[in-house]
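Lab notes, practical 5.
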Amino acid sequence: MIYSLRGKLALKELGMVVVECGGVGYACKTSYSTVSQLGETGSEVTVYTHLYVREDAVELFGFATLQELSCFRLLISVSGVGPKAATSILSDMTPEKFAFTVASGDSKTFTKTKGIGAKTAQRIVLELKDKMSAESIGGSVAVDAVSFAAASSGAVSSAVTEALEALMVLGYTQGEAAPILGKLDQSLSTQDMIKETLRIMNAKNTR
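Output from the prediction step:
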């Protein structure tokens, strides 16, 4: 399994980038978001990858962040959602918005992506929320959120609970996300809390 690629950005176009590593160019299909985040052709870049294997093809997908890769993997785990639909969705929304959309059950937002109908959008929300429940996320989030937020600030906002659920959609544990959320300004919006928590986590990982 190819975990990531680091090398020279040899080519980028809508929906695809080529990263040259050791003289070999790896073509990665990707979202428009990743294409816009990567630097100019010739610059050194890192992309996090997923090797998608099917009977008639082997395709490599690459993303600028681990969060976007996590969203991609969640999407293709949904029945009826392939990599093309997944990259289309991620071209229209950030990982933070994706996580919040799933956690809040807002299936209509997914229908704004071309090719995603109402039934597919509903399936994405239902299956991913079911996955959260299966991992004992849903039922315990509110209790844990109250516990850590009350201990740190004396109060808990609905934004904290929603942000924690959304971060867990992205694969983070309560133990990773809760301490950071508890230190944030409790008046922030849910999406701002998600964005700030991811920024802090990314900063820790790059030290």
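Observations recorded by the TA: The first strand starts at residue 4 and ends at 13. Residues 118-134 form the longest helix (17 residues).
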